[in-house]
Amino acid sequence: MSEAPDTALKVLHLDEHLAVIDKPAGLLVHRTALDAHEERFALQMLRDQLGRPVWPAHRLDKGTSGLLVFALDADTASQLGQAFEQGEPRKRYLALVRGWPEDAGTIDHPLARDPERPSQGQVLLEASTDYRCLARVAWPFSVDGRFPESRYALIEAAPHSGRRHQIRRHFKHIAHPLVGDATHGKGAHNRAVAGFLGLQRLWLHAWTLELRHPQTGERLMLQAPPGPEWADMLQRGDWCWLAPVERVRDALNPRC
Predict the structure, then answer these.
(1) Active-site residue flag, 61
(2) Residue ranges of the domains in the chain?
(3) What is the reported pLDDT for 248?
(4) Do β-strands 90-98 and 150-159 pair in parallel, antiparallel, or remain unpaired?
(5) Based on C-alpha coordinates, what's the Rg of the chain?
């Protein structure tokens, strides 16, 4: 897993009411008993960096990088919380998945509230995720010994609801789990890709966010460019890009 940085957080947007950071992979949003040994958290780091209280408006998993929104006052926190709960902000993620999914589709599959517990006995909540395949590759290593190559794809995912681990669970449901996902993925593929790339991480990045400012009503169009490891990954192998991808390729800056 990528290490969380000791340096200041990268702030992408800051005004009187809210702040948006580019969260690095490996950094928890706030304290949790699930990672009791961790000593650094985005909430405390941003609070100390800005010198004022902050409230996280939503969650990102520890291994996920990218856009994370904080409120700077209680009223904004309440309004942002309601907006995210109702699925109003439009979010798009980048992910590396096992196999070659269809060019595009919608995963409409209800999810239990708590992914850490068996689904049986839990109320299932509606959840849907749109996706499109941006690029495909076959890397020159075998995972199961049956084939000389292993297939992977770069995906853009847009969840319409905010269930916990939604993208990770939805792609597991269609048999294309995210690479680096220790909970919902495939360990053999995680290890093989980590060895091939020389990096172990959850390949999921919160890339863009369209959000109505809760106080001014302004539409904020926010973007967190993927880290350099994404461009490095896309330089490995002969990627087949699906059109239109100019905007994505410019952001990731792969070597073509």
Answers:
(1) yes
(2) 10-252
(3) 66
(4) antiparallel
(5) 18
Question: In this predicted model, what pLDDT tens digit does every residue of 60-84 receive, in sequence order?
Answer: 999 999 999 999 999 999 999 999 9
Check whether 246 has a pLDDT greater than 80.
no
Q: In this structure, what token pair is assigned to residue 145?
A: 């010994």
Active-site choice (6, 61, 238, 250): 61
Q: What is the pTM of this model?
A: 0.90
* Residue 113, amino acid: R
Arch. (CATH architecture) of 10-252: 2-Layer Sandwich (3.30)
Burial of 203 (0-12, 13-18, 19+ CB in 10 A): buried
Query: pLDDT tens-digit profile of 25-52?
Result: 999 997 654 555 666 899 999 999 999 9
Q: Which stretches does DSSP call E strand in the chain?
A: 10-14, 18-23, 55-56, 65-71, 90-98, 104-108, 111-112, 124-125, 128-139, 150-159, 204-212, 219-223, 240-241
Q: How far apart are CA 204 and CA 128, in angstroms?
A: 17
